[in-house]
């Protein structure tokens, strides 16, 4: 299994989304974090299985949420650059690559 490194901006995006969901419905923020953790485990196990989006990056769409994880797999590690809401401008995460 590959080692996962989450960049600070991606960590903040995850935390912000979890807070937003939690404010809407208690427990939903924790469910979102669980979905992200499940996604990261899947990515760590099969990093090349998901859609390429350019510049060596790939995208994993999180089940039940309008978010995708943008990452690069190199050697034995995966670097997560963004947890991106599908309706936002993709330029925000592309600039991080």
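^ structure tokens above, recovered residues below v
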């Amino acid at each position: 299994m590959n080692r996962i490194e989450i960049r600070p901006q991606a960590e903040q995006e995850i935390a912000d989304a979890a807070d937003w969901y939690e404010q809407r419905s208690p427990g939903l923020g924790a469910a979102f974090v669980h979905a992200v953790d499940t996604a990261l485990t899947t990515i760590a196990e099969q990093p090349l299985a998901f859609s390429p989006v350019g510049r060596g990056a790939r995208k994993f769409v999180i089940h039940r949420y309008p978010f995708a994880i943008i990452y690069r797999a190199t050697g034995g590690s995966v670097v997560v650059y963004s947890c991106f809401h599908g309706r936002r401008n993709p330029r925000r995460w592309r600039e991080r690559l």
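Residues 28-45 form the longest helix (18 residues).
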